[in-house]
Amino acid sequence: MKKIFLIILTMIAIALPSTAHGANNKSTPRPVIIVINPTSDKPNQRPHRAPMHVCVDAYYDELSSTITINYDGEAAGEALLYKDGELIDSSSEINTTFSIMESGYYTIEINTEYWTATGSIEI
Fold first, then answer.
1. What CA–CA distance (Å, rounded) separates 90 from 116?
2. Pairing status of strand 105-112 against strand 77-83
3. What is the extent of the structural domain holding 33?
4. What is the average pLDDT score of the chain?
5. pTM for this structure?
6. Which of 59, 77, 111, 117 is deepest in the core (most CB within 10 A)?
7. Integer distance in angstroms from the first to the last C-alpha of the chain?
8. DSSP track, 41-66
9. Is 13 part of any domain?
10. Distance of CA 107 to the CA centre of its chain
11. Selection from 26-30, 32-36, 38-42 with the highest mean pLDDT
12. More confident residue, 51 or 123
């Protein structure tokens, strides 16, 4: 009897966290995939073999209908937001938040002196 009770208790303990995680699925922000490309002034310059490590994250939050860009670095630049190929918003800083009013295919473009980054998301 104790074994059956322990088995049932273990099954409930495993099932509760997975059920709670599924209920909060709407409130978690969706990540935007960012691709970073180094820029160069010299067209014949060979690229560095070591990959660039730029810490840029972008997330879409369904509850507030915003795209938030977080950059942890020293480079100054601008962030641009396109909807279906048309520029709809821009910011003179990389760390910014864009409000989204309607659904569509959004593209983020980040331009700095040393690198550019693009990302897209369908909302």
1. 15
2. antiparallel
3. 26-42+52-122
4. 80
5. 0.67
6. 117
7. 52
8. S-TTPPPPSSPP---EEEEEETTTTE
9. no
10. 11
11. 32-36
12. 123
Tell me, what's the pLDDT at 37?
A: 74
CA–CA gap between residue 79 and residue 71 (Å, rounded): 11
Are the beta carbons of 38 and 114 closer than 8 angstroms?
Answer: yes
> What CA–CA distance (Å, rounded) separates 62 from 64?
6
Residue 43 burial (10 A CB sphere; 0-12, 13-18, 19+): exposed
Tell me, what's the pLDDT at 20? Answer: 46
**Number of alpha carbons in the 13 Å side-chain half-sphere of residue 93:** 11
Portion of the chain with pLDDT greater than 90, in percent:
39
How many separate domains does the chain show?
Answer: 1
In residues, how long is the chain? 123
Q: Kindly state the average pLDDT of the residues 94-112.
A: 93
> Is residue 12 assigned to a domain?
no
CATH of residue 99:
2.60.40.3080
In a domain, 30, yes or no: yes
Which residues are CB-neighbours of 39 under 8 A, at least 6 positions away? Answer: 112, 113, 114, 115, 116
